[in-house]
Write a structure and sequence with these properties.
Layout (H helix, E strand, L loop, with lengths): L1 H27 L7 H17 L5 H23 L4 H21 L1 H4 L5 E2 L11 H28 L1 H11 L1 H6 L4 H27 L1 E2 L6 H14 L4 H21 L8 H22 L20
Antiparallel strand pairs: 1-2
Length: 304
């Protein structure tokens, strides 16, 4: 049971890191991105291949995974920079599916649908599985803490204020002299780097990745995490990630208590229960559990 709780803690940290990355792209810059799992997959595959085939250290592989995802994010941003709303969402969703399809068919590189196994983990084999899980939870928590501090610094910096201006009214930001395209590309690069790093964390924890892991449902969970916590607020992103993981896992113990239902019916009921809980939560907290709070500057009397 202890290992299970620790594993869920690691999963929550990975979700939190992804939610922080999404918050930069969507919460601050206002760009709807449904391709989160694509950047997640890029980070996972790059770190797996670099550590296994090139023999680079784990920390270097994770850095390469984050960097590769960031570069891919720049490319996606440059291609989609003129798209808005639903069109941007559709293209980014197509990007994520393209990554999954390429990973499934590039057998020479990714081993196809069989996946890549034997991915190294820090100190794995040198310590007991229980100690490895606990150590990895501490490492993942430390990475999330650093990412949170950096995201907060970015949010309150001039760069973050420009992103919020672009989110609220892109034309006004452009008239004010801000290079909207450049700021969007930078936001995509920063957010994608966090998503790639989360994929690298996942790969080194599970020691196995395969294309069927990187499905759109993961993107939906991260979107729900940010919505539940509060769009535009880094604290809400982390809180929402832990809430979503709690809801996903706690319902596993509730469904077996319902009599006279099959396993398939139980799985459907579990999804329905999760959806109902989220709807109730967002009905009474539409801005999230920790909504974004913007500073209000008084208008000088002479300007009234």
């Amino acid at each position: 049971m202890t290992n299970y709780v620790i594993a869920m803690g690691v999963s929550a940290c990975i979700y939190a890191l992804m939610a922080l990355g999404l918050n930069v792209i969507w919460g601050l810059a206002g760009m709807v991105n449904l391709g989160l799992v694509g950047f997640f997959a890029v980070g996972a595959y790059v770190t797996a291949l670099s550590t296994i085939k090139l023999g680079v250290p784990i920390w270097a592989g994770m850095a390469l995974g984050a960097g590769a995802a960031s570069l891919v994010g720049v490319g996606v941003a440059l291609i989609t920079v003129r798209l808005r709303g639903d069109y941007l969402a559709i293209v980014t969703l197509g990007f994520a599916e393209s990554i999954r399809i390429v990973a499934s068919n590039a057998i020479w590189l990714t081993n196809g649908t069989d996946g890549i196994s034997g991915i190294a983990g820090p100190l794995r084999g040198g310590i007991s599985p229980e100690m490895f899980n606990l150590m990895y939870l501490g490492m993942a928590g430390a990475i999330v803490a650093v990412a949170y501090v950096l995201a907060e610094r970015l949010r309150v910096a001039p760069f973050g204020r420009v992103l919020r201006a672009i989110r609220d009214d892109e034309q006004v930001a452009a008239v004010a002299g801000k290079h909207v395209t450049a700021f969007k590309v930078k936001a995509f690069a920063v957010g994608a780097a966090a998503l790639g790093l989360s994929g690298a964390l996942y790969a080194h924890y599970t020691s196995y990745i395969a294309p069927d892991i990187f499905v759109p449902l993961l993107t939906l969970y991260i979107k729900l995490a940010l919505l539940t916590g509060g769009v535009g607020n880094n604290r809400g992103a982390v809180l929402g990630a832990f809430v979503i993981v709690f809801l996903l896992e706690s319902t596993r113990f509730v469904i077996p208590l319902v009599p006279f239902i099959s396993a398939v019916q139980g799985a459907a009921l579990r999804e329905l229960l999760i959806a109902a809980l989220l709807i109730v939560m967002l009905r009474y907290r539409p801005q999230g559990l920790a909504p974004e709070r913007l500073a209000v500057f008084p208008i000088p009397a002479a300007a009234r």
